[in-house]
Structure formats: structure tokens, C-alpha cells
Amino acid sequence: MRALALAVALFALAVVPAGAQEETPLPKQSWSFDGPFGTYDRAAAQRGFQVYEEVCSHCHSMNLLHYRDLEGIGYSEDEIKAIAAAQQVTDGPNDQGEMYQRPGRPSDAFVPPFANPEAARAALNGALPPDLSLIIKAREGGPDYVDGLLQGYKNPPAGMKMADNMQYNEYFTGHQIAMPPPLAGDDVKFADGTKATLTQEAHDVATFLTWASEPTMEERKFTGAKVLIFLLVMTGVLYGAKRQIWAAVH
Ligand code: HEC
User: Fold this and answer.
1) Distance CA 22, CA 51 (A)
2) Ligand 1: residue whose CA is nearest its atom 42
3) In this structure, are residues 52 and 209 in contact, taking their beta carbons and an 8 Å threshold?
4) Which residue among 60, 146, 205 has the greatest number of ligand 1 atoms within 8 angstroms of its CB, and so is best to mutate?
5) Contact 171, 149 (CB under 8 A)
6) pLDDT tens by residue, 205-247
7) Ligand 1 atom closest to 183 (CA)
């Protein structure tokens, strides 16, 4: 009798998850910044910045970044000056009391696409694109999630009713997202000549966003490694000392 009850319980356990609207598991990618000694692939991060700048920045701000921060992924001072100068920044007031536009400088924060959330919603059927500065930290799965999301657009399964202006996305919670598919492949022409496939663009922009969410990761890992080596050496020294000191007692 007990065996039967157990069998029924196990059967129910096995059946329930399959019947529920389960989430599709995220494919795990391999990243240059994985592991205790991982670093940011500078070339990938620069390509990712290009994708952000040419595609994502039409809708998404990155309020925590300044142009001069791009030094961290290997851009030179002159390149950063040129990247900033291509943007128009609102400054002021001037001595007439008016705000004015001027070309960006390296010390400026990334120029947002919309003046305020209301303007963003008005332009995007009521949807609000989140700021991407910390999105990698803010979502479970981090870079794997963003990488998957950008490639996760599909036709909705038969019978699924989609709300107006919503897209089916395999990895978005609830599968209905207000962001139109931003990438299709060949959306940019990479400065370094890498072929801009959808997979490449998604992987590179996820690398860039990961750097943006933790620009000091490499120092953190390096410090961690130094501390571990120190502890290891110190353990040896103390063990040797202990043996010496207690040798006479044996
Ligand atoms: C046409 C405007 C537009 C463009 C271009 C765009 N997005 Fe979005 N994005 C949105 C909107 C709107 C949302 C909010 C979607 C929602 O909540 O349903 C969003 C949401 C997101 C999210 C958050 C999803 C979540 O889990 O909440 C990420 C990550 C994202 N976009 C990344 C990107 C990246 C990377 C690019 C460039 C390759 C990009 N977006 C380009 C409009 C855009």
C-alpha cells in the first residue's frame, strides 16, 4: 500500500512540471570573463559597444556610463573624443538663461535617447525600455539571459493569444515582450571586420553590457588571486614554524 502511494506521488511529481507552462532553459554560453581568472575580451566588448551605439541606444539609456569610461575596453583618448563628439549634449543655461546643444565631451554621461520616461513610452506604444547600465546584474542568468533574449524571438505557439504590439520571446518571462526584435544579423558593420551574424552581435553586446555592469571585475579577481596565494604561502610558513617550535617536545 505504501509502495503504491509512493508510486502515485512520484508519478504526480514527474507529470506536473511537464504540464505547467515551464520556462525554456537558457543555453549556457562560454564567456571570456568566466572563472576566477576570466578577463573581458576587449575586441568583443568594443564590437558590443558598436552594437549598443548603433542599435540599442535608439531606445535604451546607459545612465551610469561616461564616454571616458570606454578607456576600460581599450579605446584611445582620440577615439573616445570622436565617439563623444558625435553626440549632441544639452548644456546650459547660457548667459541668456537658455539651454543649448553642444557636441559631447569625454566627461559627459552617455546621452539618453529620450528626455524622460514619458517621452519613451509615447514613442514605444507605452512600453518603457529599461536603462542597460546594470541590466546584467538585474536579471537572473546575466549575460546568458541577454544573449538568449536577443536571439529568442519566435512565432508564438499555435493557440497562444498575443496582446497588441507584443512579440513572442522564448526567454522572456511570460513570453510576451514589448521590444521588437532589435537584431537580425548584419545590423552593423564591425570596425574590425568580424562578420556581424546574429550570434556574434548578441554575444558581443552581452560582453559589453557585462563590462558596463562591473568594470572593475578584473581587479577584483586579481586581488582575490593574490589573497589566495598569500594565504597559501602563509599556511606553509606557519606550518613549518609550528613543526620547528614543537620539535623539542616530541
Ligand atoms: C525600438 C526600441 C528598442 C530597441 C532598438 C532595443 N530595445 Fe531592448 N527593450 C525595448 C523595450 C520597449 C523593452 C521593454 C520590454 C518589456 O518590458 O516588455 C526592452 C527591454 C529590454 C531588455 C530587458 C528585458 C527584461 O528582462 O526585462 C533588455 C535586456 C534589452 N531590451 C536589451 C536590448 C539590447 C541589447 C538592444 C540592442 C541590441 C535593445 N534592447 C534594443 C525597446 C528596444
Assistant:
1) 31
2) 179
3) yes
4) 60
5) yes
6) 999 999 999 999 999 999 999 999 999 999 999 999 999 999 9
7) 38
Q: Is 123 in the pocket of ligand 1 (CB under 6 A)?
A: no
221/34 Cα distance (integer angstroms): 11
Residue having the nearest C-alpha atom to atom 23 of ligand 1: 130
Candidate from 49, 110, 179, 201 with most ligand 1 atoms within 8 A of CB, to mutate: 179
Q: How far are the Cα atoms of 147, 168, 226 from residue 156, in angstroms, in the given order?
A: 20, 5, 50
Residues constituting the chain: 250
pLDDT in tens, 75-96: 999 999 999 999 999 999 999 9
* 217 vs 2: CA distance, rounded Å: 54
Among candidate residues 65, 36, 52, 28, the one with its CA nearest the CA of residue 213:
65
* pLDDT tens, position by position, 115-154: 999 999 999 999 999 999 999 999 999 999 999 999 999 9
Distance between CA atoms of 53 and 182, rounded to whole angstroms? 12
What would the grid cell of residue 131 be? 536603462
**Whether the CB of 26 sits within 6 Å of ligand 1:** no
What type of residue is 5? A
**pLDDT digits 0-9 by tens, 25-48:** 999 999 999 998 999 999 999 999
